[in-house]
Amino acid sequence: MRKLTAAVLVAGATFVAGQAVAADLPYYPPVIDVPDVDYGYTGSFYLRGSAGLNLMWAKQVHHDDATPTNFDIDEFGYGYSIGAGAGYETGTGLRFDVTLDYLSNEDMQATIAYTSGTLANGPHKLSLRSTVLLANTYYDFGLGSDYGYSAAGGTFGYVGAGAGVAFNNFITTGPGLADTRDHNTSLAAAAMVGVGYDFGSVVADLGYRALYINRIENNAATHPYSIDNNWVHEVRGTLRYRF
Fold first, then answer.
1. Cβ distance 131 to 101 under 8 Å?
2. Average pLDDT for the chain
3. Which of 103, 139, 183, 237 could form a disulfide with 81 if both were Cys (CB 3.0 to 4.6 A apart)?
4. Among candidates 164, 103, 97, 193, which has minimal Cα distance to 136?
5. Is residue 11 part of a domain?
């Protein structure tokens, strides 16, 4: 009996002592580490560079001093373009940039036949050099389950449109006349669509651009002509660098 009583007393003393020691210790609440949420890149400026190949076509060329005055374009021109630009992306799919492109195109052709006047029959070809300045808007969208695109990486598609001006320099060649050089300024516009991959700070895409040049116009004293509604069909690769 005395052993049992002693054991109870020792256990009680140990409990009381433990409570007293615990009361003297400071209390530190548990720390729970919650990882930051990655919302991707938002509010990023970027620089871009592009290069592409093109085909150019218009419906007809209008000659003021020939009869008839309109002749169908019967061969595409071919060429290339290179360009650079700067822009801003919101991180929600929308982005905006300004681009400056140098465009070269050769040998878009109209064959002149059965005319009266001073314009000689035969194939007449256009050699075009244009500097194209455009302000553009795009919408990027994820190609997975997300409809929006937050620049968080991976594969995406895009659509876009632009408007601006084209500064045209051109030479025409053909039978019965010397090479004719002239220049003009025209309204320009563009529509774009493509796919790309976001690597983080670098974004690459491959797309199609339909570039519209409203008018190419030669105001020479002899054989003046104009070509309206010119379409340049381009396949272009672009690299963007975010900073």
1. yes
2. 84
3. 103
4. 97
5. no
Asked if residue 51 belongs to a domain, the reply is yes
What is the count of structural domains for the chain? 1
- In 113-218, DSSP assigns E strands to 116-117, 122-142, 154-173, 180-198, 202-218
Q: Among residues 201, 109, 186, which one has the least CA distance to residue 153?
A: 201
Mean pLDDT of 133-143: 93
Structure confidence at residue 228 as a pLDDT band (50, 70, 90): very high
Residues 6+ apart with CB under 8 A from 186: 165, 166, 168, 213, 214, 215, 216, 217
- Average pLDDT value for residue range 220-243: 93
Structure tokens at 216: 């190419």
CB-CB neighbours of 185 under 10 Å: 13
The CATH number given to whatever domain includes residue 135 is 2.40.160.20
Instruction: Give CA angle at 131 (185, 198), nearest 5°.
Output: 135
C-alpha dist (Å) from residue 77 to 80, 103, 139: 10, 12, 30
pLDDT of residue 29: 61
Find, among 179, 187, 173, 175, the residue nearest to 77 by Cα: 173
Start-to-end CA span in the chain (Å) = 84
Name the residue range of residue 112's domain.
44-242
115 has a pLDDT exceeding 80 = no
40 pLDDT above the threshold of 60:
no
| CB-CB contact of 117 with 69 (8 Å) | no
Question: Residue 182: beta bridge partners?
Answer: 170
Q: Is residue 29 part of a domain?
A: no
10 Å CB burial of residue 118 (0-12, 13-18, 19+) is exposed
